[in-house]
Hints:
Structural class: mainly alpha
Order of helices and strands: HH
Strand content: under 5%
Shape: flat
Number of helices: 2
Amino acid sequence: MVKAGVSPRKAWARGVAWATKGYQQLKRRYGPRYTSAMLGAAFVGLFLPVPGSTLLCVAVVVAIAEVHRAISRSCTTPPDAHS
């Protein structure tokens, strides 16, 4: 939260830093394609006239990304793990 008395430039810089950090965390967890899909879904959801549509759109992409992540991790077990 931005404190009262903080210059608009500092507030903007903090907001940009916060958004960049969040984007990098998503990108590290899901990869660049799913991150872009999440941002696209959020953008599309903003313009739907249904309450909660942004969250619903992003939730669908996150669910697919989590399933893909779980499957890809289970397929990349080391060869000596089965011995």
